[in-house]
Amino acid sequence: MAVNKIFPDATAALAGLLRDGMTIMSGGFGLCGIPSALIEAIRDSGVKNLTIISNNAGIDDAGLGLLLVTRQVRKMISSYVGENATFAKQYLAGELEIEFNPQGTLAERIRAGGAGIPAFYTATGVGTQIAEGKPVQEFDGRLYVQERGLRADLSIVHAWKSDTEGNLVYRKTARNFNPMIATAGEMVVAQVEHLVDAGQIDPDHIVTPGIFVNRIVKLDSIDKRIEQRTVRKRA
After folding, report:
1. pLDDT of residue 1
2. In this structure, are residues 172 and 211 in contact, taking their beta carbons and an 8 Å threshold?
């Protein structure tokens, strides 16, 4: 029997999935490729004490920064958070727990979680605070630190195009962390810009197979903000 994965809006797509204290992975890099509508629906739900796994926390008034403003986040597992003043303020006040990761390590932890790999070793971070409290092993004369794979109760991602089976295509740099995050959630919800019938996407263009995607919401419109606008001075 065919499963209908299409939901009318972000709130409906997240219905029954949210609870206090859960772990959520969110795709995106800065404000590029973020599942903004799903983040706003999480904010509006009022769910709290969340652990968020994402490369960064957006900015103060957009992306995951919205959940920091409403103090719904207990812990962030991230790589870079330098653009968010609210994040820094809450962390320095002891109101927010942070687990920092080198960016490549974070990407591999998510990929490993999606692949069913519980842990792996990397040379990155050996001899620094990153390695404190973690097993260190020597391989071929070099020290490596053990990092654990990451999984989440819920993964939310943004894709450029999907078919009704949930096969996803990403556009340019908006691809970023989304594909690996789409493999590492117990439930995966995708917001998409374009929705087509099954069979209308060239199989060679599919990045995330629909087997990973549980629910889809097609956006009527999306505000694609630029985090830092850098332009050349006119003559």
Report:
1. 59
2. no
Residue 225 within any structural domain of the chain = no
- What are 68's two structure tokens? 């920091």
Q: How many domains does the chain have?
A: 1
Confidence of residue 121 (pLDDT cuts 50, 70, 90): very high
Q: What is the CATH number of the domain that holds 10?
A: 3.40.1080.10
- Going by pLDDT thresholds of 50, 70 and 90, the confidence category of residue 67 is very high
Radius of gyration of the chain (CA): 18
- Domain hosting residue 143, numbered range: 6-218
On whether residue 228 sits in a domain, the answer given is: no
